[in-house]
Amino acid sequence: MNGRSRRLRLHVRWSRTLTRPCLVAMVALALLAAGCRSGSGEEGGTFVPGATSAPGDGGASGAPTTSPAPGGGKASRTDPLAERVFRVRPEPGTAAQKSAVKALQGYLDGLVTALATNDTKRSGIGDYTSMVMYADALRIVAGQVKEGYGLYGAYVITLEPKGATGNVAVVNACVNQRDTRRHDARTDAAGKANSTPYVQLDYTLNHRDVGGWVVISYQADTVDSCPG
């Protein structure tokens, strides 16, 4: 990064400003355009961060850390969340914060899954996002399909609840995706490493009477590192 952080404001329709999928991977839809360049021959960064829990307010634990399933398996197209770890620091202090964090985790898991499988509809991300951002996710994945690759590997995602008042919540996320890389969509052969290893995102969520918390917008920066 040469000591500099490039700032990108990604607000709902960010994809219109990009010439190819970028940080969508975390990010996200989330997460998405830092480190991207135009042209088919250049390496593009992707952030991205299934849904592992049902949408809504119920069952949010607010646990500081969640780990991949036991067994030491590697992330793959068939098991994209095998090396995904969430860290929540500090622990949410209110029920609303806990529910918002839980929804964001579902959103990010859906994004990770969609990027690995190139199947947005079955990823679960639609349960945690607005219709417009879901449409952006579809376009991001369509770009990967066109270029013939999926993206997966190890993700360490540190979440920081910033507040939840009424129907609005803000949760920051730092995504360590340095160990993710492109894989050939047909053969699963490993390809280019992710050129945006660390991404900082600020997510805004809205609470809806039907469906609970959903991600409606975010800002994203590339950064030099994430918290250890």
Walk me through the structure.
This protein is of the alpha+beta class. The protein has 2 helices and 8 strands. The chain has helices spanning 95-117, 131-147; strands at residues 7-8, 65-66, 84-88, 149-165, 168-184, 190-193, 198-208, 212-222. Strands 1, 2, 3, 4, 5, 6, 7 and 8 form an 8-stranded mixed β-sheet that branches.
Outline of this structure?
The chain has 228 residues and is of the alpha+beta class. The protein is 18% helix and 30% strand.
Helix share, percent: 10-25%
Output the helix-strand order: EEEHHEEEEE
The overall average pLDDT, rounded, is: 77
CATH topology: Nuclear Transport Factor 2, Chain: A
Q: Count every beta strand, where a strand is a DSSP E run of 2 or more residues.
A: 8
Q: Please write the CATH class name.
A: Alpha Beta
Weakly predicted, low-confidence segments: 1-46, 48-63
The CATH architecture is Roll
- Secondary-structure content class: alpha+beta
Query: Helix count, per DSSP?
Result: 2
Strand-residue fraction?
25-35%
How many domains comprise the coordinates? 1
The N- and C-terminal alpha carbons lie at a distance of: 18 Å
Biggest sheet architecture: 8 strands, mixed
Shape by Cα distribution: globular
**How many whole angstroms does the radius of gyration measure?**
16 Å
